[in-house]
Amino acid sequence: TGNTYNDNQHASVGAFASFQISEYSSLKLSAGYVYYSFDPGGSLPNGDTLGAVYGDLTYSQRISALVSHSIALGRSLQPGLFSDLTDVIYVRHQASWNLIRKFSLTTSLSYAYVKESVPSPELSRVYGFGIVIGRTLTAHLNGSLGYQFYYRDSNLAGGTYPQNLVTLNLVYAF
Length: 174
Known about the structure:
Blueprint: E1 8-22, E2 25-38, E3 48-62, E4 67-78, E5 86-97, E6 103-116, E7 122-136, E8 141-154, E9 161-172
Antiparallel strand pairs: 1-2, 2-3, 3-4, 4-5, 5-6, 6-7, 7-8, 8-9
């Protein structure tokens, strides 16, 4: 039926490499190929196959003892929550600012172009930014408070919306 998603089998193969460009910068590369074979029935009555390249290129740099950042470009393919397959092309930037003693501050910007397959093929763009402030509370306990905002712009009715996310994390290390 049209509301049922297909079972699938997939295989992937890939490689990764990491390069130290200088004392303060590095480059990481991962790339591979994935093949999906969807069973007949459900939203794909005759089944379907898809083979595609995926990868990620991340550049990281320590600008000073107080500031570091990274930028990532990539593509991922994975089974979707509300589709048979989700194809994401993204760019992400993250910066760490250690400007206030005993506190960490992380900011992020992101953009993603998302293509979801059947039952309702959807194209969307997701824009985001975030900020997280953290602090060591005891010898074993760290805490952070974060805010992220995403705006999703979709080609489907009802698929465009903003999203706000507030997080409080407490991490105890034994």
